[in-house]
Predict the 3D structure of the following.
Amino acid sequence: MLEVGNSYEIEFSFTQEQVNDFCKISGDFNPLHWDEAYAATTPFKKPIIHGALIASVFSRVMGMEFPGEGSVYLKQVSEFKRPLFVGTTYKAKFEIVSTNPAKHTAEIATQVFELERGKLMVDGFASALHTELF
């Protein structure tokens, strides 16, 4: 049973090939994500990962690991505080902050930290429904 305070963590990173594949899947070919020469002219100095690709980590965890299979991902709010880059390892953290057993829902804090420096990169929350776990 899931309860307030339950948490989950996962480390992840993306390659440039995965970012390029996401360009093809999403249709977002903004050169900021794949063109090193273009990105070098921006404040970021190198290509950054799509925010939606980062959010896909939340989707994977919510649907497969925490709360897990059978979950319905109802809502995600994310604030991207810093750019994320390929080849860097990040840690996604999830913590249940409230539950509503009558509606079989939970509010879950979702955060991404750069693993090496511990800097908060993405801050937000999600809502999930799971009839078997609450």
In short: DSSP finds three helices and five strands in the chain. The longest helix spans residues 51-64.
